[in-house]
């Protein structure tokens, strides 16, 4: 049996569990994934899927919804309620294409949703994205575990230094050798107090090791005895000076991460400050590599792998936040849902590679139109996109939607299979609500989805708007 080294990023991607009651679907997906060197497990019903996931948890689950006895929703609920399997990402692959089926899938813990009939490239792109996130999470967890062990050693070392303070003061040669050998920045500072009030006004450097001196672009001997601490801290984060005073006055240790531009490079440092006599000692560690890994993970978790705009998961989170904020502030919250017209015929005629290029071009153009930092453009699913517009009433939302429609049309992307134009176009539905206790996020999505449906039913390549009243009238007429 082949052994895997968990420190290797490539080996973190191992197995995928496919759950589908249709043997044909299992064969197609298995062949596709095994061709990409994934380890594939199969289950034809919900009970066997749960047993397989619990006995040997896979790295990812592809889950059908419509199955006998136990549907995919129930399977996902059970998997997410088990501590052993709750962190396994679940991608739903289903013939159900209604927006409410998709919403339900995300609400119970699904990380993504692919509509049947699926495209191989899209499924592989979504799997790759989720497995990359899992890989980064495992690497980050290992890094944090190692960092925690190192922190424990650091805390133990600091306690030992504090207990042996008197001895260390008499053995300066020993202290010097320890400091010079440390890979962390270490310094000891004593309080400088106002002679009248007794309050601390600065700190004088007593001991500084070479690593700490490098941060100041100096040699240790040039810093010893100098009053430079307050001036230096004020350049980074002025409120930290008060925090260090509290370490001395209360005896309570201080531990934080800080960002600092060192030699024209943005770096992150983790420090621990401990009371030492009438002053404190501080240990500083460069954690730039870990921080960059965390930022990379954060980006992977929020960005759609194909188009580069925000993904559906991030859209759901931001929409919830903006709904609550606009509800408090009694401001309009608008939502645009849009769909690339006749995209399936486009894919069938030009091929999936051209289809991907089309979606990338559409997303890039829309992103140039949605300019405010508070506005969010996200890939809603397949060829669908969504735009969240906080503090934006009807008129502004319709104007942005119309700009989006015009800019996509100006791309002049040929579309020989469109029934309305020789070029690629989009249809858009707009909804605008002042959130309150009588409405809900689902109602905003439903209104925008109805408006989009109406735009497509009435000829496409157009913008349609609904508010609460218009939707109620239309529903009665229907």
List its salient traits.
21% strand, disordered N terminus, Rossmann fold, Beta-Lactamase, Alpha-Beta Plaits, 18 helices, five-stranded parallel sheet, single chain, 15 strands, alpha/beta, 478 residues
CATH C-level name of the largest domain: Alpha Beta
The helix-and-strand class reads alpha/beta
Total strand segments: 15
**Major sheet size, sense and barrel closure:** 5 strands, parallel
How far apart are the first and last residues' alpha carbons, in Å? 63 Å
Q: Give the count of structural domains.
A: 3
Low-confidence segments, ≥5 residues, pLDDT <50?
Answer: 1-12
β-sheet strand percentage: 15-25%
Compute the average pLDDT: 85
**Largest sheet strand order:** 2-1-3-4-5
Radius of gyration: 29 Å
Number of helices: 18
């Amino acid at each position: 049996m082949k052994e895997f080294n968990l420190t290797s990023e490539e080996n973190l991607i191992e197995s995928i569990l496919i759950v589908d009651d249709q043997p044909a679907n299992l064969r197609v997906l298995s062949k596709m994934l095994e061709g990409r060197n994934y380890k594939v497990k199969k289950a034809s019903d919900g009970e066997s899927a749960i047993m397989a996931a619990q006995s040997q948890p896979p790295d990812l689950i592809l889950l059908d919804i419509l199955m006998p006895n136990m549907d995919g929703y129930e399977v996902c609920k059970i998997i997410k309620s088990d501590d052993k399997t709750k962190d396994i990402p679940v991608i739903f692959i289903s013939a159900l294409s209604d927006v409410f089926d998709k919403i339900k899938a995300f609400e119970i813990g699904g990380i993504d949703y692919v509509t049947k009939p699926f495209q191989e490239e899209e499924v592989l792109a979504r799997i790759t994205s989720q497995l990359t996130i899992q890989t980064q999470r495992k690497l980050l967890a290992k890094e944090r575990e190692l960092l925690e062990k190192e922190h424990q050693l650091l805390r133990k070392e600091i306690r030992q230094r504090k207990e042996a303070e008197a001895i260390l003061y008499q053995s300066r040669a020993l202290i010097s050798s320890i400091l010079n050998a440390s890979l962390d920045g270490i310094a000891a500072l004593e309080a400088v107090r106002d002679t009248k009030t007794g309050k601390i006004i600065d700190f004088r450097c007593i001991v500084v090791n070479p690593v700490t001196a490098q941060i100041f672009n100096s040699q240790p001997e040039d810093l010893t005895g100098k009053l430079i601490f307050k001036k230096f801290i004020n350049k980074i984060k002025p409120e930290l000076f008060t925090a260090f005073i509290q370490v001395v006055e209360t005896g309570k240790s201080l531990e934080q991460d800080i960002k600092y531009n060192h030699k024209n490079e943005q770096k992150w440092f983790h420090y621990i400050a401990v009371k030492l006599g009438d002053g404190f000692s501080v240990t500083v560690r460069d954690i730039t590599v870990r921080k960059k890994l965390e930022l990379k993970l954060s980006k992977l978790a929020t960005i759609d792998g194909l188009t580069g705009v925000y993904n559906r998961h991030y859209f759901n989170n931001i929409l919830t936040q903006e709904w609550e904020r606009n509800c408090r502030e009694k401001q309009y919250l608008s939502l645009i849902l849009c769909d690339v017209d006749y995209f399936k015929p486009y894919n069938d005629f030009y091929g999936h590679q051209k289809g991907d290029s089309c979606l990338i071009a559409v997303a890039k153009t829309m992103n140039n139109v949605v300019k405010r930092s508070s506005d969010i453009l996200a890939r809603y699913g397949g060829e669908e996109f969504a735009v969240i517009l906080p503090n934006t009433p009807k008129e502004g939302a319709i104007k942005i939607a119309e700009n989006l429609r015009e800019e996509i049309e100006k791309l002049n992307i040929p579309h020989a299979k469109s029934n309305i134009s020789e070029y690629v176009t989009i249809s858009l539905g707009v909804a605008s609500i002042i959130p309150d206790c009588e409405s809900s996020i689902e109602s905003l999505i439903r209104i925008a989805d109805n408006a989009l449906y109406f735009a497509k039913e009435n000829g496409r390549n157009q913008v349609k708007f609904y508010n609460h009243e218009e939707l109620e009238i239309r529903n009665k007429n229907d």
